[in-house]
Amino acid sequence: MNTQISPEFRADELGAGVVKRSTRLADGRELFYFDDPGTALGPERNVDARTLDERPETATMRQDILTGDWITFATKRQNRVMMPGADADPLAPQTPTNPSEVPSRYDVAVFENRSPAFGPALNRATGGVPQAANPTRGLDDMAELGIGRTRTSVGRCEVVCFSPDHEGSFGSQSVTRARTIIEAWADRTAALSALPGIEQVFPFENRGEAIGVTLPHPHGQIYSYPYVTPRTQRLLDNIHRTVPDLMTRVLDFEQTSDRVVLQGEHWTAFVPFAARWPLEVQLMPHRHVPDFAALNDAERDELAPLYLRLLRGVDALYSTPTAYIAAWHQAPVNAGRDTVRMRLELTSPRRAEDKLKFLAGSEAAMGAWTAEILPEVAAERLRAAVASIPEV
Predict the structure, then answer these.
(1) Catalytic site residue from 219, 240, 266, 329
(2) Are residues 256 and 169 in the same domain?
(3) Of the given ranges (37-41, 132-136, 138-142, 345-349), which has the lowest mean pLDDT?
(4) How far is Cα 99 from Cα 86, in angstroms, rounded to an integer?
(5) The domain spanning residue 273 has which CATH number?
(6) Residue 277 belongs to what domain range?
(7) How many CB atoms lie within 10 A of CB 195?
(8) Residue at 74 is within a domain
(9) C-alpha pair distances (Å), 261 with each of 172, 268, 342, 372, 376
(10) Other C-beta atoms within 10 Å of 207: how many?
(11) Closest Cα to residue 59, out of 43, 44, 70?
């Protein structure tokens, strides 16, 4: 492999001693290395010398006239790799026998997904030849209703590799590494929010085969949407129908309940009053903050060990690791910045050691939920599990 500094390489110092190094992959996709403070890695990075096919056409969205929702058809994702061994891990650093997506050894790496649900309007690999024949035309256009409406799914999807290790999750990282990932989330949130046409940025981690994970490598993703997602639209509507400080009132309500699981100076984790899932916990900053980019250093510093403790508590509930979705809800880019507070919503279908909750008729078809576990009981169990975890 060719070890050198890429001609497009640049380095930027971020918070907490994290250094961001930017380059491109062989097909023009952007790649960012986020180096831990005091990293053992040098500044050099391998050039991606692979010969890659041209990037696929950006996916297409179709509107469901009965709900108004936009459904993306990303057909190239149908044949993605399923649970490869360590010798074929596409998120591991490249080796002579494994031409993976990341050319160099790394601490944290972020890159554009090769077959994304939301992709570029321009193909950088071919000098900016237009790919989006039918791009979105703003929020008003997205809100209109009509039979047979389609748009190109212009946006961006990035993969966030938490570690070069083949197996693990966010919860298996060190406090230092967790802090680096938080810095990466903040940096990418700011950069993606500034892209033309992006209306909402969503970092998340899928963990476990029961959730549908196809790679055991510790990683998450960031989706950047050309519209405000349905969940957030409903939240904005509820804020409009009630009070502008609704989320502050919700936090105050939860902090005085027996559903609090973990609390720090800047963050509180709680099982929500009307939790749908057998395991559901939210983590919310005490200060009104719309997204990761707006967090101050003290909030980021506390989040790293507190979030790790919460995730390890989730795993302490049972004798085997628990599958979950860790969804970081953030305010839209151009709406609700002063009313929508960022929060983590961690959910799992696991309702017992050997039982899962399946979304059947009422939940799946009608969106009318029935819960089997009281939130207060779930919070008590999770508090005990978190208390059994050593300080991180």
Answers:
(1) 219
(2) no
(3) 132-136
(4) 12
(5) 3.30.428.10
(6) 231-387
(7) 16
(8) no
(9) 20, 8, 18, 19, 10
(10) 26
(11) 70
Asked if residue 274 and residue 208 are part of one domain, the reply reads no
Whether 244 and 305 share a structural domain? yes
* pLDDT, position 1: 41
| pLDDT at 8 exceeding the cut of 80 | no
Assigned domain for 307 exists: yes
Instruction: Count structural domains, the chain.
Output: 2
- Mean pLDDT on 39-59: 91
Verify that 218 and 327 share a domain, yes or no: no
Cα–Cα distances in angstroms (integers) from residue 166 to residues 110, 173, 348, in the given order? 16, 13, 23
Place of tokens 């990932």: 181
**Domain end residue (candidates: 203, 225, 247):** 225
Q: What's the mean pLDDT in 124-129?
A: 52
> For residue range 215-228, what is the model confidence (pLDDT) as tens digits?
999 999 999 999 99
Greatest C-alpha distance within the chain: 59
Q: Which of 194, 210, 225 is the last residue of a domain?
A: 225
Residue 3 reports pLDDT greater than 50:
no
Instruction: Decide if 219 is catalytic.
Output: yes
Flag whether pLDDT at 47 surpasses 90: yes
Asked whether residue 265 falls in the same domain as residue 173, the answer is: no
- Examine the domain organization and report whether 202 and 270 are in the same domain: no
The per-residue pLDDT for range 145-176, each reduced to its tens digit, is: 999 999 999 999 999 999 999 999 999 999 99
pLDDT band for position 100 (50/70/90)?
Answer: very high
Mean pLDDT of 354-377: 93
